[in-house]
């Protein structure tokens, strides 16, 4: 392998949003930066390729965002989905800094568009990327190239060598050849471990082998495990993750955001035994959609089925795969492999529990609820009666895991003996520092952008 390459000030491990924000910030501060991206060029960008939007605080209309979305409301929304399992100081820092991030993003090539129809009133809270996450990633790579950032693709990192409180070397593979570099600073932005099914199964047990990985197959947690094994402080629960209910026909890896199903609030959801198991009307998807992956994971064979009728067929974002369609409910049950008798009993009990639906409002919680059944449906409860009927299979789709590297407000990593003087982390690999459980739509991009910029600035200051 020879002597390590010492030409670069900063090595950034990973190639998604957080890595790119760090690279651009550091390069603008005068540092010589190299990005080591495990994926090939056509799949660069990690899970950021699949994102659509960025959750942003603002006190007045800002770019495509309307009205205002203050710190307290933003933080309250976060508390609702995390159940209080968050580092308040770090969370509030992300929320406050998100407001200055949006114009920074625009200045570095990202374009925004008004919120998409069917996304349940996000025009105030979430700024949507024109062209989606892939356009954002491409814009950042163009900006990074113009700043002289060097990028190696197909370059998975195998080891980050620690000597006391310093990183001394980074080992990686490139074109089948083992290479080594000795940068003056390192930023880890290589995501979680969700693509390593064995690691998922160690954390969750055998049911995890039935999970689908909606994000990149390259986030295997190699660098995370390597650093944790060397005593770098961790944060988060290995069983906690961003897990949503996705179309059961999605591929094992990299299905992306298009495989998510937004029909749940307007449906009843049953397991393979034809039984309902949770309140489908608890809240609108930006706040509660991420709980459904865990709910489905707890069901037999880790599968669920969302059932709607003709009244609800056009109330949510179109799906990438067409639903199973039938002219009667028994026919739908047969097509979906559900026990007809148990399924029909569930539907009939639900229909009988529905009351006056005249207050139905699909774009907000409407209080149109069932009565006398458990679990109740507390909003959007209308009987499933109008043919044709539609069904979707649901599987647990994991986006990213929350076990990660513990960081402080400067994005710096540490061991029990103190800070590691030249190691920082940003993005999904440290998001567990803020997200104890649950997820808020667009918040991952907020964390990655804020902490990527902080890590880039701190690393550049260190090498200077």
Topology (elements, then pairings):
Layout: E1 10-13, H1 17-28, E2 33-36, E3 53-55, H2 71-82, H3 88-107, E4 112-113, E5 126-129, H4 132-146, E6 150-152, E7 157-163, E8 166-174, E9 177-181, E10 185-188, H5 197-204, E11 212-213, H6 222-229, E12 234-235, E13 241-247, E14 268-270, H7 285-288, H8 292-297, E15 303-309, E16 324-326, H9 329-336, H10 340-353, E17 389-401, E18 404-405, E19 412-415, E20 418-425, H11 443-463
Parallel strand pairs: 1-2, 1-10, 2-6, 10-20, 11-17
Antiparallel strand pairs: 3-5, 4-5, 7-8, 8-9, 12-18, 13-17, 14-15, 15-17, 16-17, 19-20
Helix pairs in contact: 1-4, 1-11, 3-11, 9-10
Describe this structure in words.
The protein has 2 domains: 10-234 and 403-463, 3-Layer(bba) Sandwich (FAD/NAD(P)-binding domain); 243-397, Succinate dehydrogenase/fumarate reductase flavoprotein, catalytic domain (Flavocytochrome C3, Chain A, domain 1). The protein has helices at 17-28, 71-82, 88-107, 132-146, 197-204, 222-229, 285-288, 292-297, 329-336, 340-353, 443-463, and strands spanning 10-13, 33-36, 53-55, 112-113, 126-129, 150-152, 157-163, 166-174, 177-181, 185-188, 212-213, 234-235, 241-247, 268-270, 303-309, 324-326, 389-401, 404-405, 412-415, 418-425. It is elongated, with a radius of gyration of 23 Å. Strand 1 (10-13), helix 1 (17-28) and strand 2 form a beta-alpha-beta unit. 28% of the residues lie in helices and 21% in strands. The strands form 5 sheets. It has a 6-stranded mixed sheet with strand order 6-2-1-10-20-19, covered by helices on one side. Strands 11, 13, 14, 15, 16 and 17 form a 6-stranded mixed sheet that branches. It has 464 residues and is of the alpha/beta class.
